[in-house]
Each structure stands twice: as C-alpha cells, then as structure tokens.
Amino acid sequence: MPVISSTKNLEALSLTLVAEFDAGVERVWQIWEDPRQLERWWGPPAYPATFERFDFQPGGKAGYYMTTPEGEKPRGWWKFTTIQAPNQLEFDDGFADENGDHVEAMGIAHATVTLEDLGGRTRMTIRSTFESEEQMQQMVEMGMEEGLKEAAGQIDALLAEHSHA
Are the CB atoms for 134 and 127 separated by under 8 Å? Predict the structure, then answer.
C-alpha cells in the first residue's frame, strides 16, 4: 500500500494524505496531467471516474463524474489555480449538479498536490482544506478520507503499466 499516512486536522480544517511510489516525479506527474490516467485511479475501485472536461492550465476547469455500483453518477468539478510541473498542482473542487454547475450547499474545498523526489522514488502529498468544520465533517462522513486512500492504492499498478513507455 503506497499510502504512508492520512491526517485530519480540525483546527487547520485540513485532510492530508501522504503516499510514496517507486517511480520518478515526472512519471507520477503524468497521472495528474493526463485525464485518461487520472480516470484510472481518481475514483475508489467501485466508483470509477470519467473526466468529460479537462483544461489543464491555471484558471482551467475539469468536470467529471463517478459511476457508483448502483449506476448513479455523482458529479464534481475542479478549477486549477496553480500548476508548476512536475512538483505542484493546486485546484478548488466541489460537487456539481447534472449540468456540471457548482452545488453551493456543499461548499468548495481546495487541494494542494506536492510531488517530492526521493532519489528516484516520489512522495506525493495531497492536502485538502475546507471552508468550515461542518463542511469537513460532512466530507469525512461521506467517505472522502477512505475514498482517497483507496484511490491512491490503485496508483502503483498504473505506474507499473507505463513504466517502460
């Protein structure tokens, strides 16, 4: 399991996941910048993600849905705020309705992804910050922490597949 730790900090309104991979930083960066690779791991195993829109540049937006085992399609959106290849990526994210529009009631979270070179291996840190304790609690109750761990658990297989590309 590549996940080293998952830490909730209510005071900082943050959830931080740290994982390490046997692949270089440039290779791990590809699983974020290529929507087809992102789809292979972003959703937990039983909730595959499909990115319908992916404008990977500061100010650009991504729109996706996950397909549940029951066939429902909850939607989400990202707005990229910082892209510093291949080490840092930041985006706002939230829930979307069936038209892809932001669902105000769920608020907006902000994700910071950092990739660090550990001499041929990569440490990936995903830090999500929330607007309020209530929003954070709601996300945790909806399974965000567990889902992120399960999603990250699929990355090793994806990296192994493309390592000789």
Answer: no
